[in-house]
């Protein structure tokens, strides 16, 4: 079994900026910003969760969330200084030069504006060009059409389906496994 380790980015994630989004390391003030965003029903549905299943978003939950971000190779996605989500690399397999990528926008008013695509593009560039990864992969619920369109636009292709792998309100949902290779990213001219 290949050795899996955290993504080697030093003590702080690299700060990155696109035309509209800024990616930075988590800070103490992010817990309060996350608290303000709370649970958004539109966002929760994309993850297969119903609002009724979630208790109120508490200060303790916000601190726990912040701790999770700090322990991962995570960037806070901000627009005009406001926290709107996170993006992270995880499950790094050094020998295979591969990792998984995950993104979560937390403010439904920011959906559909291309901000997630812009944030992903920055992290994909960093993964392939900065970290020398060969492959990135992700999981997404099969009915999360907005996310699938975003990933496909960036060059991810569906590589598999895990049938009924996610328990969601009202039943089960398939997870799609999608992947992107460094050579495909470069050939498509996605860099930069």
From TrEMBL:
UniProt protein name: Protein N-acetyltransferase, RimJ/RimL family
Cited InterPro entries: Acyl_CoA_acyltransferase, GNAT_dom
Domain of life assignment: Bacteria
Gene Ontology molecular function: acyltransferase activity, transferring groups other than amino-acyl groups
PROSITE patterns: GNAT
Domain N-acetyltransferase: 21-183
Alphabetical UniProt keywords: Transferase
Keyword field contains Transferase: yes
Cited PANTHER family: GNAT-FAMILY ACETYLTRANSFERASE, SPERMIDINE N(1)-ACETYLTRANSFERASE
Pfam family, one: Acetyltransf_3
Lineage: Bacteria, Pseudomonadati, Pseudomonadota, Alphaproteobacteria, Rhodobacterales
